[in-house]
Amino acid sequence: MTAINTSVFELLKIGPGPSSSHTIGPMKAGYDFHCLMQQLPQEQQEKATELKVYLFGSLASTGKGHGTDRAVLAGLLGYQPESCSPAILDGINPDNPEGILLPLGRLKLLFKPTDMIWDNQQHNYPFSNTIVMRLYSKDNILLEKEYYSVGGGFLQWKGWQEPKQGVPRYPYANAEQLLKQLRKHRLRIDELMLANEIAITGCSKRQIKEKLDHIIKVMQQSVERGIVTEGFLPGPIGLHRKAALLYQRAKAMPRSIDRMLVFLCAYAFAVAEENASGHIVVTAPTCGSAGVIPAVIQVLLKHQKLSRDVVRRALLGASAIGFIAKHNASISGAEVGCQGEIGVASSMAAALIALAYGCDERIALNAAEIALEHHLGMTCDPVKGYVQIPCIERNAMGAVKAWTAYLIAKESLPEWHKVGLDKAIEAMLQTGRDMKVEYRETAMGGLAKVC
After folding, report:
1. Buried b (16+ CB within 10 A) or exposed e, 102-126
2. Residues near 376 by Cβ (< 8 Å), separated by ≥ 6?
3. What is the DSSP string of 393-430?
4. Where is the Serine dehydratase-like alpha subunit domain positioned along the sequence (predicted)?
5. 14-16 and 280-282 as β-strands: parallel, antiparallel, unpaired?
6. In this structure, is the dihedral angle defined by the CA atoms of residues 269, 274, 277 and 282, taken in order, positive or negative?
7. What domains can be seen in the chain, in order of their start residue?
8. What mean pLDDT value characterizes the chain?
9. Rounded to two decimals, what is the model's pTM?
């Protein structure tokens, strides 16, 4: 089993919603193809007559509602997820009958709505969410590339190989190996993660701290925008934003457990609604589950008055849970259903809470397992293909389950815990493989079918 050598900042990425696999990954693909087109010799650029984008898997079935066409075009225009403002995305109309002019060296290439081809949901490509881009000179292909959006904003392509990075100082591939490394070297999980991040990326402690602080800042900004924004979410569902209402109701409640839970739900709604609007969020570990961890962090910082340093270290430690889930199963709704998105986010959040409150790593891993266990089998069934119903409420429920999982793990005897995190992740993978394609982000089953 190969060791995990992923950077924390590949897992926690900043970009536009509503779906990391449908917007961030495809925008990266568009940007990569944009760069390849600019590198073509001028004589080939002058021969180009049209560009075709073929979308497969759930990109074909729900990509319109997820804004995949807009994201691809943003990339082809030269924008990247982490620096593309919502205003730019809002200004791109993929259905413009006059088309959109794309840069091609010193020239412009007209991209028409019919050049975005919503192809087969089922296909023979190695990953569900596949994008094929072809630049033509009449009937001849000048340039072609096959991309795979594999979840969480991660992008691969035909011939892709794991990028060469530094070797982790304390290698692990699953939770059992992680615990062994912690015990052998007498480390806290955040210390191990920091050492590995330095070894993998070459960044300094200060740089990693600053990057984590920026991630937390963006998470909080998405919460703060969401709790003051009212109105309807985009799309045909006509769904009211609820975060602002929940936040105001929570403020008016007497101090109680109920009040804290309503705040927690309001914060999760806030980020999920920002995500559904195509605004900037942090993949934690995906856009569709981006509200769970920020909601927990907001409560820890604003209500429990924990220090930013404590929360930063807890987030670093909790990232290990996301790594293990992605490495041994998937965090893509198109691959394993919503258990891989909300389930893993809730699992990470449960570990984060435990670590923030000073619990040892065994309790944190038990909390992570409990949270994931109670999301097993959760389907991904977005109504009308939009990341709104049931996705937004699931972020709130994921945050509440995370807090409950932490309490159960903390107040139980660790030696009584029978199911390890690795077993829960193995079960998630098997369940995802057994799940019908209708229940994996296709909007063809479950709530998407009956609503």
Report:
1. bebbeeebebeeebbebeebeeebe
2. 339, 343, 424, 427, 428, 431
3. HHHHHHHHHHHHHHHHHHHS-GGG--S-HHHHHHHHHH
4. 185-448
5. antiparallel
6. negative
7. 10-157 (3.30.1330.90), 172-450 (no CATH)
8. 95
9. 0.88
